[in-house]
Amino acid sequence: MQNWQRWTTFGACLASMATLGIASTFSLYSEDLKSRLSFTSSDLNLISGIELATEDLSFLLAGPVVDKFGSKFALGFGAILYSLGCFLVQLAYRGSILGTKFTVVLYYILIGSGSTCVYLAALKLIVVNFAGLAYEGVIMGLALLFFSLSPMLLAQIFSSFFAGKVEGYLTFLAVAALVINLLSLLLTFESAAEPTVAPELCLPDNTGNKTDIPDEFLISDTTESSRTLSIPTEGKVATSTQDYERRSSVEEADIIDVVREGSLRSTPSITPSKLHNGSFMTPKEILRAPIFWSFALVFVFIQGFTYNLNFIQILQATLQEPNAMTLSDQNTRHVTIMSISQSMGRFLAPILLQRVSGSYKPSLLCIAQVLILAPTVVLAQGVSGESILYFASTCIQFGLGLAMASHLVLTKDFFGTKYYATACAFSIASTPIGILTSNFVFGQLYDREAGAGTECLNANCYSKAFVIFSVFQGIALCLSLVVFYLRWRKSR
User: pTM for this one?
Assistant: First the structure.
């Protein structure tokens, strides 16, 4: 692929990702949706929770589609679904079509499914086209930054042009998403996925000269019919740097696992097929990998999505009887802060992970869990006030950004790029269980505290739910530590 094609594809993918912020801006118009269609807070939680759950469950369909039919097909298909869903919600809001909570849920399922197809297609185009380059981490960070900034961009567009005009906002989303993504489809170039090697199968980096690894650990080629690893006779000498590099290449020769100091750790017989499967885990191998299940369960228990989706109720309970203008201004400000915080987390994670040694990369996932847990525990104490909400919005969303970006990078590190989209699908597909559970808990406890009224205006409206969320987040932290241990143990 030529450079101009690579960078054109990158720009088109950024534009596509910028259109996918409807879920994160749900709180901007959820109150209007609630009053127009006579929904309760539990209804809104059901709708927003299922939309987010659909985004994650759709990975199971979108992942294999992207890997089998190509990213461009998935990009176009997803754009149509996403725009159709936005248009149907707009018609329901107008009263032109049925607008019960169940039909609106169906419309948001279309939005969530389309969003996932577009997101995963754009992501794989970037991962494949820039894999192995020195600035790969920066490129991934910029892509995720753009994706995370989309809610802030849409929040500003809403407050500037569509405040009180939900119908117009939904129409804008439908048209803009369709046009931008179809234009992106014309400007993207898809290349074949390049092989990547699992870190534990690679020779370590040498800080000294090429002879730091003793020659007896360098393997010369054998016949094509029986290329397996063996220990050469002592005293064999690598005659040149070029010869060493040839043997060190995954394409040219098989590789033995050695420690940085040059001492032999293990000497198994590894055939080319075993090397291939270690470098590119098949879907069955991914599901059998010990690290997979702990890794996937982290994203079942992780919190942050529920705070985002229900922020308008939390804000109302904190401000206590705010006027509509104050509530709208504060909500827009917090949506912007949350978007920026999550964007910085998503931008920094790939850059930091590229600089961290393979066995220590999961440590960033652990740090992200701590950042989410701290404000969750504070909110569980019933502490209120604007300063507390600014602290919570910043920490929770920054931690969530770090965690979700780490997921994308670690998935490639753990399982390779050949089935990257499928691996992402497997590891994120169970997330809806946590989202729906947390949203259900919040909605039920909020409505119970509100009593006969539709709004709840005290700290108890959210604190009881956050006690449960603190437990969930504590489990996510423990699972992240397990992932770190498993990855560290495998590298020893």
Answer: 0.66
